[in-house]
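Response to reviewer comment R2.3. The reviewers asked that we include at least one raw input/output pair. We reproduce the pair for AGRG3 protein here without editing.
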Amino acid sequence: LLQSGQHIRLAGLKTLLLNVSRAVTRDVLITFSPTEGPSRLNATEKGKAGKIHLPREIFRSMRSQTVRVVVTVLNTQQFGMFKEANQTGQVLDNTVVGITVGESSVSGLQDPVQLTFAHGELPQAVTPRCVFWDPSRGQAGGWRSSGCVTQPGDEGTVCSCDHLTFFTLLLNPALDDSTAKALMTVATAGCGVAVAFSIFTMAFCIFVRCRFRFEESVRTNLGLHVNLVGSLFLLNLAFLLNSGLAGRAHPSTCGVLGGLTHYCLLCCFTWTALEGCQLYLLFVKVLGIYIHHYLAKLCLVGWGFPVLVVGVAGVIGSYGEYSIQTMDHQVIAHLCWITSKHLLLHYITNCGYFGLIFLFNTAVCGVATQRSCSLQGSGAVQGYREPWKVALVAAGLFCLLGATWALAFLTYGISSAAVLYLFTVLNSLQGIFIFIWLVVLYYPKTKETTGSLSNIIRHDKTTTASQ
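Raw output as returned:
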């Protein structure tokens, strides 16, 4: 049924012509690769080349007894074709595959054509998408994906399309130019607002701590909140300086600014961990615990530990200009941060460090929530039983324990753009959330706050002051 095909080979262009009978009883299978071009499927093929699966439906609808199948594999880099204006994705291996059967166009197939584009493991920053070339798109044509379904795999991506034309696999960066600019605008505006609200929050905590008489545990908590909000204030301020000076600063200045930004981020993570430790001591270790100069020692850890990490990183020259690029190497943003040569430091000190903190804080938050619910059910704790206040306390607690930062681990894959927007908005507005939470929690019903949120009664009627 498959007659011997004729091969046409030019520079960057490889074509296979096959005469296929209308009475074909099985699907037509063809392999292709950027280097070897298209050929009939060999039984010994190990899957390193791409595959084309043409269903029988195509040939049964043909009027002629024998039709010619033309499969073309071309290199877009050598031909300079199939270039879309403002294209953000990169064509896999610069390879475009064209398929025609007979002289008429084929569309609306019930049994789709399947093209398997072979590739290794793709970077986490890209998303494959099956597309075809539409000459009517824009002024010079462009890529479209309607009628094609993308099925990513470990060794290749399968494209199932209901028509025949020129196809390719487009590797779209998770962060394109327009998304990056929008995120930078949102982050800059949010950080500017967060800086102002961080100042309000610190002033409010200091005022409440000095104006009203609280027991020592509540005063310690207020001191913790002041330091956490202070680290958020410095982080937002460092980001604003970074976004304004990056790309124009002297290399040494950029290195200092990158180290300062890293220090502020580590301080924020460390104070988040200390909030979790305090919650553990108050809700789990409820027996009387007195530590001399407790808050001063927490400050030594919260502000001192990041100095050691940043100092070591600075000695080995880890800070400098870092560029965020698209797949076609277009720079979309400059930052003074950890350089590309030392990204392992970023994964260890930022991703790994926060991952451990978040796991610990999640476990502590679960224990504290369970204990608080059991005490509320037994009537041991009074006040703040309204659902909206309970929800507000829970939301504020999640902000204090760094739940919004955990969204960074979800910024991969197809939904990365939406998660990036959510991550940027929530973290830039974290200072506002904490400010509202503290105002509702501590003011103006300060007496009620002291009585309702700082008492945990043990089953043996031993009362321990906590919050």
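The first helix runs from residue 56 to 60. The chain has a mean pLDDT of 79. Further pairs are available on request from the corresponding author.
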